[in-house]
Design a protein that fits this description.
Blueprint: H1 3-35, H2 40-45, H3 52-94, H4 105-127, H5 133-151, H6 165-197, H7 217-251, H8 259-281, H9 286-309
Membrane topology: Multi-pass membrane protein
InterPro entries: Cyt_c_assembly, Cyt_c_biogenesis_CcsA, Cyt_c_biogenesis_CcsA/CcmC
Keywords: Cytochrome c-type biogenesis, Membrane, Transmembrane, Transmembrane helix
Length: about 325
Amino acid sequence: MTDAAWETLSNQGVAVAGLVYFAALLVHLAEWATLRQPAPREAALVGAEAPPASTSNARRTAAERAAFLGRLGFLLTCIAAGAHLVGLVGRGMAADPNRVPWGNMYEFTVAGTFVVTLMYLGLHRRFRLGWMAPLVVTFVLTTLMVAVIWLHEPVQPLREALNSYWLVIHVVSAVIATGAFTLGGIASIVYLVKMRKGSEATGSTTTEGWLGRVPSLDALDKLAYRVHAFAFPVWTFAVLITGPIWAHEAWSRYWNWDPKEVWAFITWVVYAGYLHARATAGWKGRNAAILALVGLATLWFNFIGVNYFSSSSQHSYALEAPVERPAGS
């Protein structure tokens, strides 16, 4: 295949992934709608009390329909992830010479959303994350749309600063941590929503509809903590070890006070504070969830925002096409 054919395949793969993600989102929204069945006490309030047997059958039918839609949505998400991977591989194969598909913000974003999906699929069964599906799919679909509409650029060779094996080590670890932090942030958001629906004092929560499938507040809090505890050392490796080593190789300095480096360190400090507060001060629940969301905001601002709002960053090449150098220069 020619480079142009690979690039076309990449664009088609991302487009197909977006369409299938959208189909998966519709299926999961239908699953939510199926779960919103009136409780027997609600039927009694409107004077339409149903016999116990018919109520039980209706609930059983609704549960079976919701389970089928959940499995279908998961299958569609797997298919979308496959198309997503094709888009990434095609992007790297379209370059001459072939390279990893992380040369600009469009490619970073496509890779980052793929890792979010991959981590969700990998942890789905172990942590029973079916309740998280609509949120993950919505996030991935929205971010992919932003990438395609505003960030897309033609395939170009890597800039000199990026042409290093440290690109693979640094970016892989950073993207894995970003995907994990994002899943932990989603768990923290759901924690705050469920807590608001129930009573903060007693821990009771709404048990009907979609929130009825969400784990207890304690389980959500533990899930967020576990995911963040996994992501933090990976982020530390990316930001404080491989990043400075690569910076020294590219710019002859381990630390340049570059806006990207500063915000990456701010993100590290916020998440370090989150884990330290939980381990020493016993911070759990609402305060921990809010701090986790502060970390998520700094993380994604560092990932995308710094490149747009900073004109002095040495990482600004992520938004620019490389400048061709004269032969022999």
